[in-house]
Design brief:
The chain is α+β, with helices and mostly antiparallel strands. It has two domains: about 15-175, Up-down Bundle (Four Helix Bundle (Hemerythrin (Met), subunit A)), CATH 1.20.120; about 175-260, Nonspecific Lipid-transfer Protein, Chain A (2-Layer Sandwich), CATH 3.30.1050.40. The protein has nine helices and six strands; from the N terminus they run H-H-H-H-H-E-E-H-H-E-E-E-H-H-E. The strands form two sheets. A four-stranded mixed sheet has the order 4-3-5-6. Strands 1-2 form a two-stranded antiparallel ribbon.
Length: about 260
């Protein structure tokens, strides 16, 4: 009999909404500090420039706002669960959308960020988490969809940091939600209890079928930090590279996540 999958983690709608806006504000402040030379530089995501990446980040909120302005999809039952979402998301080109957002000059870029934040905050306020919204892969609950926004924002914050060297802050709640969702997606993809994956201070999950650990020190343990974890989960860093650079600790004969990564499509 295959290992049973655990019940999905619950996320507080209000805290998630606040985290999305907080992380977006951090990126907006960082983008305003970029020089024309930095904006014209490579983002590390295919052919995108940093300016392309900066413009794309505004669509993370805009897609939600656009859906909330439309009538709620019919059906009542979501087509896509939160743990299914990572497999439908893009990898290194863009987490949730293969299309490049139109690049904008500096004055327009500032306006895009202001408009996106204001519109999102206004439209999402007071909307119940059970409200359905349409995504590229199917309808989702708004509460679940907002958790996916933390993933996109945190991952693109890291992209911006690696491309420009700017130390962009991470909202703790946004980073926690992102880390937990990707860890839970791993456990959902490979259910079991033979390997314990630790991403302190936010997540601990057990995965991969085999002898289940119940007491004492687990025989198979993987441990890493949140940023390394999200880079592994989204394909920005390879498993072997992380091991070689001592960014991941892996002990035990089953502690090999290479066949399961990345988690995003």
């Amino acid at each position: 009999m295959p290992p049973a999958k655990k019940r999905p983690r619950a996320y507080d709608l209000s805290r998630t909404r606040t985290a999305v806006l907080a992380q977006f504000a951090h990126v907006r402040t960082a983008v305003r500090a970029l020089t024309p030379g930095q904006l014209a530089g490579p983002s590390g995501l295919g052919e995108w420039t940093v300016q392309d990446l900066a413009a794309h980040v505004t669509t993370v909120l805009e897609r939600t706002s656009r859906e909330l302005e439309l009538p709620e999809p019919s059906g009542g039952t979501p087509q896509l669960t939160l743990l299914e979402w990572p497999a439908t998301a893009g990898r290194t080109d863009a987490i949730a959308d293969d299309a490049r957002a139109p690049a904008a000059e500096r004055p327009r870029l500032d306006a895009l960020y202001d408009e996106a934040a204001e519109r999102f905050a206004r439209l999402v306020d007071g909307v119940p988490g059970e409200r359905l919204v349409t995504t590229r892969a199917g309808t989702m609950r708004l509460g679940d969809h907002l958790v996916t926004r933390t993933v996109e924002l945190v991952v693109h914050t890291d992209d911006l940091h690696r491309a420009t060297g700017l130390d962009v802050p991470y909202d703790r709640q946004a980073l926690a939600a992102c880390t937990r969702l990707l860890a839970d997606a791993l456990a959902d993809k490979a259910p079991g209890g033979s390997v314990e994956v630790r991403v302190p201070p936010f997540a601990v999950v057990q995965c991969i079928g085999g002898p289940k650990h119940t007491r004492g020190t687990p025989p198979n343990v993987v441990e890493t930090d949140p940023l390394t974890w999200l880079r592994l989960a989204t394909g920005r860093t390879r498993w072997t590279e992380a091991l070689d650079d001592a960014l991941v600790g892996a002990s035990g004969e089953r502690a090999d996540l290479a066949p399961l990564l990345p988690l995003t499509g």
